[in-house]
Amino acid sequence: MLLGTQRVNAEGHLEIGGCDAIDLVKEFGTPLYVMDEETIRENCRNYKAVFEARYPKNDISFASKAFLNMAICKVVEQEGLSLDVASAGELYTAIRAGFPLDRVLLHGNNKSLFELEMAMDFGVGCIVVDNLLELRQLKTLAEKKGKTQKILLRVTPGIDPHTHRRISTGQEDTKFGLSVANGDALEAITEALEFAPHLKITGIHCHIGSQLLDAHTHEQAIDIMVGFMRTIADATGWMPEDLDIGGGLGIRYTEDQHPPSYEEFGDTLIGALRAALEKYDVPEPRLLQEPGRALVGETGTTLYTVGVIKRVNIPQDPGTRTYVTIDGGMSDNPRPQLYDAVYEVLVANRMGEAKDQEVRIAGKHCETDILIQSTKIGHIETGDILAVQSTGAYNYVMASNYNRFTKPACVFVKDGEADLVSRRETLDDVVRLDIIPERLA
């Protein structure tokens, strides 16, 4: 399962962006996040082109929660996308990177007053309001500052997206948004319209979940959301100009997963949108989207060095299990522990060998810390380099210092060049915020 610019070079090594994975390890160490910049750019261009061809009245924002540092902000800006942020830290990253803040959307289900004020002071283009408390706080702030703030209202369409329960967000039982079904969303919209000119509501927003391998739930969401637009217009006389359907398109983590292509996804979404607009007699809104994983997930590879290889007896067939231990684990990729995530793995320095042995890939933390429960690889020795595929989303951004591990470095690779975009933490970084009270000194 070679992805993006990956290939096997003449030495039998994995190559990404024209860079030999083994050379990357020699220069930057392991664990190492490697991001395929050219494929990120191609994905941004292709996704944008698909929707421009089918529905020109649209805007694409990159969901930065999937992968964020200042370098990706520059790539996203250069490729003409907007940026979706969900915290003061994500917003500050965009500010420091010089990203155009009129192209930033601020999300969050429990935004602090600090975050709301920060967004207004720096001129964030749109704030996606989650609840009535936030709506009222934002109106007070805008009035105090003498500003008009553009907003969308996040609503809950009440759809079960049939993905992992921890990444489902569109159902009724969720912390996000206001329910369409019980009338909360309409009440909030009515109130928001009364807050003009301090708040300018331009539309409604929903997000139904992540890692979706078909577009069926998006079709359902679009029908509900466009129907709600008609309800809003009939009840208030105001028709939303913007319809934001979030993100959620999945990627290939394993060879047996087949998410829709961008073209297939675009055909389905725009077909559903046009049908719903006709059904409910609604004029064309501006269609907003927030893909994240779909743009960067398959562009990331994490490189590890193999340490201890241990064979243990088990009661099941074949009677033994081989543990291959790496120099990272749940601190650099918590998704297997959080979401039961499954990955493909390659032996980066032995790419030509047949995959004839089944092993379990284990991390080195003081937990069970299994990265991959079962996978087939070829011959493996201590010191070999493992490459875990499709780690471009929700790995780097979820890294922790558990067991006081240092967070890995991250590099962008393109045209045979590797650029450090986030340095590896040092042990001094791990303790730099610690304080020993005087009474303990």
Automatic annotation (TrEMBL):
GO molecular function annotation: diaminopimelate decarboxylase activity; pyridoxal phosphate binding
CDD domains: PLPDE_III_DapDC
Domain Orn/DAP/Arg decarboxylase 2 N-terminal: 39-296
Keywords: Amino-acid biosynthesis, Decarboxylase, Lyase, Lysine biosynthesis, Pyridoxal phosphate
Active-site annotation: 366 (proton donor)
Biological pathway: Amino-acid biosynthesis; L-lysine biosynthesis via DAP pathway; L-lysine from DL-2,6-diaminopimelate: step 1/1
The keyword Amino-acid biosynthesis is assigned to this record: yes
Domain Orn/DAP/Arg decarboxylase 2 C-terminal: from-to ranges: 34-392
Binding residue positions for pyridoxal 5'-phosphate: 248, 290-293, 394
Post-translational modification N6-(pyridoxal phosphate)lysine, affected residues: 65
Binding site for substrate: 293, 335, 339, 367, 394
Cofactors, names only: pyridoxal 5'-phosphate
InterPro entries according to UniProt: Ala_racemase/Decarboxylase_C, DAP_deCOOHase_LysA, De-COase2_C, De-COase2_N, Orn/DAP/Arg_de-COase, PLP-binding_barrel
Leading EC class: lyase
PANTHER family registered for this protein in UniProt: DIAMINOPIMELATE DECARBOXYLASE, GROUP IV DECARBOXYLASE
Cross-referenced NCBIfam families: lysA
Record family assignment: Belongs to the Orn/Lys/Arg decarboxylase class-II family. LysA subfamily.
HAMAP family for this protein: LysA (MF_02120)
Biological role stated in the UniProt entry: Specifically catalyzes the decarboxylation of meso-diaminopimelate (meso-DAP) to L-lysine.
Protein name: Diaminopimelate decarboxylase
Annotated organism of origin: Capsulimonas corticalis
Underlying gene: lysA
